[in-house]
Amino acid sequence: MFRAMILRATIASVVLTALPVAATAAPARIVILTNSEAADAWRLCEIGQQRAEALRYNYLGDKAAKSLFKEDEPPAFFFAITPLTVATATPASLSWRKPIIHYSVMPQDDAKKTEEALHERTREAAGNILNNPALRGKTVVMVWDRRHIADPDFEAKYERESAVTLRQLFHLDIVPGVPREWPKDNHDYFWIVDFPDGSNVPLKFEMMKQDFGKSFPNVPANEWDEQGGLDAGSGCAATP
User: Fold this and answer.
1) Which CATH number fits domain 27-212: 1.20.1090.10, 2.40.50.320, 3.30.450.30, 3.40.50.1240?
2) Where are the alpha helices (DSSP H) in the chain?
3) Per-residue pLDDT tens for 161-180?
4) How far apart are the C-alpha atoms of 50 and 48, rounded to whole Å?
5) Which end of the chain is more exposed for a tag (fewer CB within 10 A), N or C?
């Protein structure tokens, strides 16, 4: 049992080594976004690749024009879960020469098995991020599967210790103004979650729209509940 507790408290990387501590070691800030537009379950489409680069140069990368990070507080780590989220995070993480901590879930022919793996890995990631002393007071970026950020069906089916969405696992379900669902065709927003020192209950939540101006004119900038506006000729598949 003790060994299992240690394993659950350890981030899946040689870079981070966690020790068993009370659940009061949350990062100061978690920046959450979903993957860019995709061609399929494995690859970003051309527009998605442009968005990943736009995120680097505008918000998430070193010397970004509208950086989400304080000058003396760069992101400690980037976290991802699927091939699409890894591809989205890569340009920004490379600019910082930071690793991506990959709670790896690869697409499978059996959709049910893929979904179950996403459930399990999301629980593991959230638990480790909230409880790892190496992350206390840091800023981390999570590029995640949209349904495992927020989905009302998952939240109705999986509750309390069985929760599978970051909205529940990070206790955002008790914070006013946090959407219950990440819309199907939306790739355009950040969720920014701030935690007080010594607590894993959020202090502040902000939803920010990505705005790339004229530098990436082909990247959609739809509102939260609007369709992405890409046609079949774009090479971008519908979001699952």
Assistant:
1) 3.40.50.1240
2) 2-8, 46-55, 83-96, 111-131, 152-157, 166-169
3) 899 999 999 999 999 999 99
4) 5
5) N
